[in-house]
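RECORD CONTENTS
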Amino acid sequence: MPIHKLGIESYRKMNIQSRNCEETLFACLYACATVTEEVNNIDWPASTAAGSLLKHLQDQRSGTENRLFLDVLGYLDVSDQILDMADFYDANMVKSKLAHAQLNQACI
């Protein structure tokens, strides 16, 4: 993302802004899906892409509170994705597709 065009100088702040933008895109996708009630099929570039995105957006927990990203995972197709050891504690995954997803030791 061209975050540098926003005039942000520190890498940390650029990373936070980028993560917030990515999270907002998923919130918009979820909002549309709740109206259409259609599952969002993402063309994941690799079998680990959904898990990598989850880890990138989630951050380390310091309690039970979720980031927005975990509240907007509904209507998302993560079939055939490798989500081993993923932290889905208290996540909203209503009507999400998990067919053949690998969820070894995942917290669901």
Observations:
- The longest strand covers residues 40-41.
